[in-house]
Amino acid sequence: MAQEDVAAAANGAATTVVEKAVTFTAYKPQLIVEAQKVGDAVAFYKNVFGATETGHSLYPKRKADQELPHVVSAEINLAGTTVVVSDVSVHSGSNAKTGTVSALLETDDVEAAVAKAVAAGAVKVDEVSEGEADGGVKGKVTDPFGFSWIFVSPAEKSGDKEENKEV
């Protein structure tokens, strides 16, 4: 409370507390990978999902004689969303477990997406199948860093189904 509010409250005057509105400007999912695997994870996501790297942070105390810089975190753009890929080390400010997210990616070719991910080192979890609820195709893989990726075909819009029935 401001000093005037404290003085007014002490004198028995009514005070009004006004909460400041909080506005969020972005939602950025964070993928936490094993120590020193951020570069590998970003390369995988670029190769398999067509992600683009938009920035990264390097470990500041890296020795000059070491070949590769230690990337602590990187931001990638994946399907129009900014995703942060971070090192689990204490230097990244995160101590969560690795592989703690499952993500849905919509694509017109689920089988090709699964095949590309598997060719790059992911493990196919289930066979590609038709979805019962929306009639779409679904496939699931786990990438080399422990994250589950579920590929789905775009859901049919209910209006499309009705139009097809009328024709």
Succession of helices and strands: HEHEEEEHEEEH
| Cα separation of the termini | 67 Å
Helix proportion: 10-25%
Largest sheet: 4 strands, mixed
Return the structural class.
alpha/beta
Mean pLDDT, to the nearest integer, reads 76
Q: What oligomerization state is this entry in?
A: single chain
In which order are the strands of the major sheet placed? 1-4-3-2
List low-pLDDT spans: 90-94, 160-167
Shape: flat
> What is the rounded Rg?
24 Å
Strand elements, count: 8
The number of helical elements comes to: 4
Strand content bin: 25-35%
Report what the structure shows.
By secondary structure, the protein is of the alpha/beta class. 23% of the residues lie in helices and 30% in strands. The protein has helices at residues 3-10, 38-49, 110-119, 158-166, and strands at 30-33, 52-58, 71-78, 81-87, 102-106, 123-130, 137-142, 148-152. The radius of gyration is 24 Å and the shape is flat. The N and C termini lie far apart (67 Å). Mean pLDDT is 76; it is low at 90-94 and 160-167.
